[in-house]
Inverse folding.
């Protein structure tokens, strides 16, 4: 039997292309290309794996972001996602994780029926891991975080959570929310056929007007986080010294002298 | 009924120019590129000669994707110790067209964007596996075992021509007709470049082709150096055949030797390598009868449409003209099911400078890759120059005597020299 799955994604600057400004030491995201947040790719793959096993499954991917997030959504559709919704509005600007979760929860409520919501564990550009669990709380549904595998069986949803001391398998009744780790699976490649279909189909764009939220609840106004100050920690200059292979004694002596190496018996 | 009117494989200058032309004429066109952003894996030396692009993008010269307009063109011979250069500079470049240096990763993505703006569907980050065929007719492309159909396929896949070869449209290239080009982009401040190359201003550039006459082991290679706004593109073009014969020589050693040459190194001093790339260069074109067939046309590098006679090295302008030619041939014969309709492509190319140049300089590779050019000429030139420009207290000689003596020393018989001179005059 088919399931209704919603995947929440975020578009982030490609971390391999983010450069540090040599003068201000701030991250220059402008130079980097925008991609799907890596863990979100695993979330999409997890949803697709369920779709592979459960014909008739319908996957909708949603994101809250600027208009250029369209690229990331088209990329999701190119892998086999059925529908994509971009929730975009000037009013959402400056949102911290609280109104972001609220906005996504309101979007999901508008979409209607769903069995599983997937999200990546955390984003590479802010690493909070707040949004997925936040959405589950706003919607009042069960959730499983830090999952490396999940599947649907006999009307239940199972998820394996990777914890410090082992793997915990939990059984949930849908609807539920699952956040996925980057080691969960190997995201599939988009195909030409699906890319063409995605472009022909296009994505849907929603604004604040499409969801039942007050302007004061979203964006910067709805964000409780206040950044008090920000500072750059300058790189500490390290002392370098070269030793030849035949100078090992000298090398060890110097390490001892500097207190880096100590000899002793416990 | 096919899904697309035309599928263009490869978003380089040929593919994107074709797609822009087709989309502007309201054709339903799909442009596919393996890289994302499209064209970002494309490589070339980096000078776009001529103004062919104006045929599809009238205001192209206003684009900030162009680096510097060439006002100084060099042809340079290097020996281990010396540099013998022609350094042609002219304020007439402007009324007489030269070219712009471009950085392809940026430039090609911009071109593909123009195709998208014109209405083409641009799909990037996916590599076509092969062509879909019914008998000898090309009916579309295949990826992941799925077929996407088109009335016509324009193959602009670049020098490797993997799809054309795999689909049996083209024979695997002979080593003798291929060269490998290795290139580095070296970052330097705009002002430093303008000063080091004595350029009028930051918008004007220098381009030179080199004969690398200092290589040992019988490997022949040419070099190039082009100035971009804030970087220098430097590279070596090496005969594949020579590399294969001398398995102790590596392409990266050659570019290193070039960069470390006493008269090249100062030009690059304090620069930081920003990009490293390698690219196959078809040195002799395909026969004109194999660049088209039922349902397809081959354009750009894939059709072997590059030009080098040692004095200039060009490809992008030919690519653009061939791409536009393919697009126009499709548009002119649209609706026809005759397998012969694609002959128009060949015929139209014959009328342009593309095939005319290819014909005029047919066989020039025999000269550009000759021992004479790569070894004898640089060695003799060095000796003659040293003789003329030095002063060591000995009686001076006439130039003709110096040349003859040098030729004898370099084991060049007078007759051979005359033959080579004649060849050069005829073929370059």
């Amino acid at each position: 039997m088919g399931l209704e799955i919603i995947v929440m994604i975020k578009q982030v600057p490609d971390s391999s292309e983010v450069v540090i400004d040599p003068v201000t030491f701030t991250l220059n995201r402008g130079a980097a290309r925008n991609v799907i947040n890596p863990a979100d790719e695993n979330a999409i793959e997890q949803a697709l794996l369920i779709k592979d096993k459960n014909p008739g499954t319908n996957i909708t991917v949603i994101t809250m972001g600027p208009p250029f997030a369209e690229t990331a959504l088209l990329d999701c559709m190119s892998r086999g996602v059925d529908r994509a919704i971009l929730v975009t509005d000037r009013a959402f600007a400056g949102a911290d994780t609280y109104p972001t979760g609220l906005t996504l929860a309101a979007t999901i409520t508008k979409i209607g029926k769903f069995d599983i919501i997937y999200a990546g564990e955390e984003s590479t550009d802010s690493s909070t891991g707040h949004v997925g669990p936040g959405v589950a709380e706003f919607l009042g549904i069960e959730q499983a975080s830090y999952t490396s595998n999940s599947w649907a069986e006999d009307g239940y949803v199972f998820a394996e959570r990777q914890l410090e001391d082992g793997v915990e398998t939990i059984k949930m009744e849908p609807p539920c929310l699952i956040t996925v780790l980057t080691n969960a699976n190997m995201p599939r490649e988009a195909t030409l056929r699906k890319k063409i279909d995605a472009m022909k189909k296009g994505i849907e764009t929603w604004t604040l007007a499409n969801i039942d939220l007050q302007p004061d609840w979203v964006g910067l106004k709805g964000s409780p986080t206040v950044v008090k100050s920000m500072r750059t920690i300058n790189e500490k200059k390290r002392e370098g010294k070269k030793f030849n292979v035949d100078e090992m004694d000298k090398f060890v002596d110097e390490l001892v002298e500097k207190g880096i190496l100590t000899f002793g018996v416990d | 009924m096919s899904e697309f009117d035309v599928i263009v494989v490869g978003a380089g200058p040929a593919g994107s120019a074709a797609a822009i032309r087709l989309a502007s004429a309201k054709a339903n066109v799909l442009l596919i590129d393996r890289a994302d952003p499209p064209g970002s894996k494309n490589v070339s030396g980096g000078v776009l000669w001529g103004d062919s692009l104006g045929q599809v993008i009238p205001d192209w010269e206003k684009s900030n994707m162009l680096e510097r307009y060439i006002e100084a063109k060099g042809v340079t011979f290097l020996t281990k110790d010396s540099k013998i250069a022609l350094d042609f500079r002219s304020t007439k470049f402007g009324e007489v067209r030269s070219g712009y240096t471009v950085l392809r990763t940026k430039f090609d993505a911009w071109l593909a964007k123009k195709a998208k703006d014109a209405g083409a569907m641009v799909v990037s980050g996916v590599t076509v596996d092969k062509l879909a065929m019914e008998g000898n007719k090309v009916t579309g492309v295949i990826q992941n075992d799925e077929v996407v159909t088109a009335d016509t396929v324009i193959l602009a896949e670049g020098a490797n021509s993997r799809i054309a070869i795999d689909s049996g449209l083209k024979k695997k290239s002979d080593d003798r007709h291929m060269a490998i080009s290795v290139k580095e982009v070296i970052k330097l401040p705009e002002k430093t470049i303008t000063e080091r190359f004595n350029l009028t201003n930051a918008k004007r550039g220098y381009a030179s082709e080199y004969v690398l006459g200092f290589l040992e082991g019988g490997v022949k290679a040419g070099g190039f150096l082009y100035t971009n706004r804030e970087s220098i593109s430097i590279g070596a073009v090496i005969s594949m055949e020579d590399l294969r014969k001398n398995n102790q020589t590596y392409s990266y050693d050659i570019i290193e030797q070039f960069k470390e040459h006493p008269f090249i190194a100062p030009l690059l001093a304090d620069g930081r390598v920003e990009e490293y790339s390698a690219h196959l260069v078809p040195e002799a074109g395909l026969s004109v009868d194999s660049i088209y067939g039922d349902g397809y046309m081959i354009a750009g590098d894939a059709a072997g449409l590059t030009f080098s006679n040692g004095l200039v090295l060009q490809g992008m302008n030919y690519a653009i003209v061939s791409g536009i030619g393919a697009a126009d041939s499709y548009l002119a014969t649209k609706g026809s099911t005759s397998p012969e309709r694609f002959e128009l492509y060949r015929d139209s190319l014959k009328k342009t400078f593309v095939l005319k140049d290819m014909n005029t300089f047919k066989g020039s590779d025999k000269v550009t890759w000759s021992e004479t050019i790569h070894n004898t000429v640089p060695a003799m030139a060095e000796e003659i120059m040293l003789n003329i420009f030095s002063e060591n207290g000995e009686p001076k000689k006439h130039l003709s005597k110096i040349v003859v003596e040098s030729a004898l020393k370099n084991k060049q018989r007078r007759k051979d020299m005359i033959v080579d001179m004649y060849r050069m005059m005829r073929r370059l």
The mean pLDDT of chain A is 90.
